[in-house]
Every structure is written in C-alpha cells, then in structure tokens.
Write a structure and sequence with these properties.
With 139 residues, the chain is an alpha/beta fold. The chain has 4 helices and 7 strands.
Length: 139
C-alpha cells in the first residue's frame, strides 16, 4: 500500500491510513522517516481524524502523550527519538501503551523496534519534494 499526498490532502490520507489499520487489525502505527519528513504532522492529522479535541504535539521530551477520542478512549503518541535503547523505552513505560489495546502512534520506532507488536503497521514517510510526501507500508 502506498499514499502520495500534499499537506492539503493530509486529512484524507490520514483517514485512509486509519481505514487500512482497521483492515489489518492492528492498533500500533510505527512511523519511520528522516527528520523533517512529516511524522508529527501526519500524527496530528491522524489524531484529528479520530476526533480528538486536542492538538497533537511532539512528545520528544515527555516520550508519551495521551489524548482522548470522543468516546473517551486513550490514543497514545510516542516519540522515541531521545531514547537510547529498548531498556530505556521500557523504563519510560512504552510497553504499557503498546499493549494496552488502544491506538498507539510511534515516531522513531527503530530505537526499540523489538518492543513493537508483530502486527504493527509500519509506515515509511519520505519527502518527494518540498510539499509532497510518500508513505508506504513495509513488513
């Protein structure tokens, strides 16, 4: 699966990604990509599509942000950029969120990839040009 979109199309793309996630029966989205590719921007769009009233900000320093959807269910947004390894991630409590059964969106998952559930949706985001991004699914 692949999506190519501009910032003006990100809401529709986020909606398509959430529909795809439902088809693969997962609850973890792992976002891979270089600095500045748009991982946090995509996460914000995903959280808006879920109907969460809060504006998603990068949890680079807090590691985990929690939002609530309209049915008051938690949605977790994690940024593992500052973590050194899986041990530090475990100490930060990421496993509780990953295996909670609730939606988790993880930026920089390669830091502790072994902690991700097997059925995580692994999305790679890459710039095509200054305004266009490409996302593709990998195993």
């Amino acid at each position: 699966m692949e999506w190519v979109f501009t910032l003006g199309q990100i809401g529709d793309t986020a909606n398509e990604i959430l529909q795809y996630l439902n088809k693969v029966s997962g609850n973890v989205i792992a976002l891979y990509g270089p600095m500045g590719a748009g991982k946090t921007t995509l996460t914000s769009a995903l959280i808006r599509q879920l109907g969460c009233p809060d504006i998603a900000n990068s949890p680079t320093f807090s590691i985990i942000n929690q939002y609530r959807d309209p049915s008051n269910q938690p949605v977790y947004h994690m940024d593992w950029y500052r973590l050194r390894d899986a041990e530090e991630a475990i100490g930060a409590g990421v496993e509780d969120a990953l295996y909670s059964g609730h939606l988790c969106i993880v930026e920089w998952p390669e830091i502790a990839e072994g902690l991700l559930p097997e059925n995580s949706l692994r999305l790679h985001i890459e710039p095509v040009d200054e305004v266009t991004r490409r996302i593709f699914v990998s195993d």
